[in-house]
Specification:
- This protein has four domains: 29-209, no CATH class; 212-291, Nuclear Transport Factor 2, Chain: A (Roll); 293-374, Nuclear Transport Factor 2, Chain: A (Roll), CATH 3.10.450; 385-444.
- 44% of the residues lie in helices and 20% in strands.
- The protein is built from eleven helices and 13 strands.
- Strands 1, 2, 3, 4, 5, 6, 7, 8 and 9 form a nine-stranded antiparallel sheet that branches.
- Strand 10 (397-406) and strand 11 (414-423) form a beta hairpin.
- It is globular, with a radius of gyration of 25 Å.
- 37% of the residues are buried.
């Protein structure tokens, strides 16, 4: 039978079908691009808030320098403390890969010192010469920090999605970028300022610090390893020798978490570099990035989760739970939280990326796990989930209450009930302190 007579209908139909498929792919790509742009906008907004509040903080400190009237000084100290607290919280909401722990600590120190000075002179007694000297030191240091934040904002935020790429690829894969170098320089500056002026930032209010918290992270304790030991740790982590003559470089010298970056250059068909980051203190491998395996299809999201979980089990994380996962651009992105006594440690999440085509892990980032302040509290709540619901206003529906350990806004880790909450057409993730029922954080999930 001759089918050529149907060609007049078949060819246009195929063309329409091809156009529809292309349009669908274009729409999906557009949606993904819009989503990534929204994430990048969120991160840059957070950074702008850090920079803005740092600027307002140093302005208030400078204003306090120009008068001897204690009431006026206290007003400016209150303003400086408020903006320091806001800057500290915002800096704790940046991507893990670019969070600056020395910077957050600096903001907390300024807040605490300003608050202490206000308390000491609540009766309008004059500041001592030593206290005025401390005030001038804080103002000078705040100016230097604010200038570096502005420099990063002016020259570092170039290209497509500079902050989102830190989340997607991690600091190892982009460590040589100008943005990464500027963050490293800022960390070194802040660390140096706090070390030089210990009498202002450490000794002056050491008695006011909570001895239960501010404990050192895993990444800041332990014996310091050599560069050759770092190569050995990295080689073991990736399962054996990769290519010849791996290159190692030290980064973050003077910061709270200095590390080595080991670069392997595999031989053969797969010659793209492989990066492994190792903390100098303790020798923990906290990040791995493998180039050349992105794209492709053939691996479901469920299979990707299994591959990622098996990878973590092989590398010392036997007990984890999935927090979230997604797939786009040929890669499956997963986030896991370690479990302790059955409770997810949401402040120490681990990221694992799996290439859909190659079915192998291309990126691993456990920096949050090793850099987080460890939780030393109880896993037994004082209130029930039903009690915690009382924190919500009328008309809010809640679901999926779960005990987690979280560190809202970069604060000390706490045991909390995490709720999925709905009010009207908006959805939220809400953390409520499991000991006293206080709302710790509210994250709006919708843009309505």
């Amino acid at each position: 039978m001759d089918h050529r007579g149907y060609a007049w209908a078949l060819i246009p139909a195929l063309a329409v079908g091809l156009f529809a498929v292309s349009l669908y792919g274009y729409n999906e790509h557009t949606k993904r691009s819009a989503a990534v742009s929204q994430v990048e906008l969120g991160y840059q907004t957070i950074y702008h808030n850090v920079s803005y509040d740092a600027d307002e903080m140093q302005d208030a400190l400078r204003r306090a320098e120009v008068t001897t009237q204690t009431l006026t000084i206290n007003r400016e100290l209150r303003s400086a403390a408020q903006h320091a607290a806001l800057a500290a919280r915002a800096s704790g909401s940046l991507p893990i890969s670019v969070q600056s722990h020395p910077l957050t600590a600096f903001f907390h120190d300024v807040e605490t010192r300003c608050t202490q000075l206000m308390d000491l002179h609540a009766a309008a007694t004059p500041l001592t010469p030593s206290e005025r000297s401390d005030l001038s030191t804080m103002a000078s240091d705040a100016t230097r920090v604010e200038q570096q934040l502005r420099t990063i904002q002016r020259s570092g935020f170039r290209g497509s999605y500079p902050l989102t790429n830190f989340v997607k690829f991690g600091a190892s894969a982009v460590n040589a970028s100008p943005l990464a170098k500027q963050f490293t320089k800022m960390n070194q500056t802040v660390f140096s300022l706090r070390a030089t002026h210990q009498a202002v930032y450490l000794k002056s209010f050491a008695a006011d610090r909570d001895p239960v918290h501010d404990e050192p992270s895993l990444a800041s304790v332990g014996s310091v390893i050599s560069s050759q030991q770092a190569i050995a740790r990295a080689t073991s982590f990736v399962g054996g020798t990769v290519g010849k003559n791996p290159y190692v470089a030290a980064y973050g010298t003077g910061s709270a978490h200095p590390f080595y970056l080991v670069t392997f250059h595999p031989s053969g068909p797969q010659s793209s570099p492989l990066y492994v980051s190792v903390f100098q203190h303790g020798g923990y491998v906290f990040e791995m990035a493998r180039e050349g395996f992105s794209g492709g299809t053939g691996t479901s999201v469920a299979d990707g989760r299994s591959i990622a979980k098996q990878f973590l089990w092989q590398h010392g994380f036997p007990s984890v739970t999935l927090v979230e996962s997604d797939a786009y651009h040929g890669q499956i992105f997963t986030k896991f939280a370690p479990l302790r006594q059955g409770v997810p440690l949401e402040n120490q999440t681990i990221l694992v990326t799996v290439a859909q085509g190659a079915r192998r892990v291309t990126h691993y980032d456990a920096s949050a796990y090793f850099e987080a302040e460890p939780y030393r509290g109880t896993f037994t709540p004082k209130i029930t989930a039903q009690d915690a619901v009382k924190a919500f206003s009328a008309g809010v529906k809640t679901a999926h209450a779960q005990l987690v350990v979280c560190a809202p806004h970069g604060d000390d880790p706490r045991l909390a009930y995490r709720f999925f909450a709905m009010r009207g057409t908006n959805t939220y993730i809400v953390d409520v302190d499991a000991q006293n029922g206080r709302v710790l954080a509210i994250a709006k999930q919708t843009k309505l």
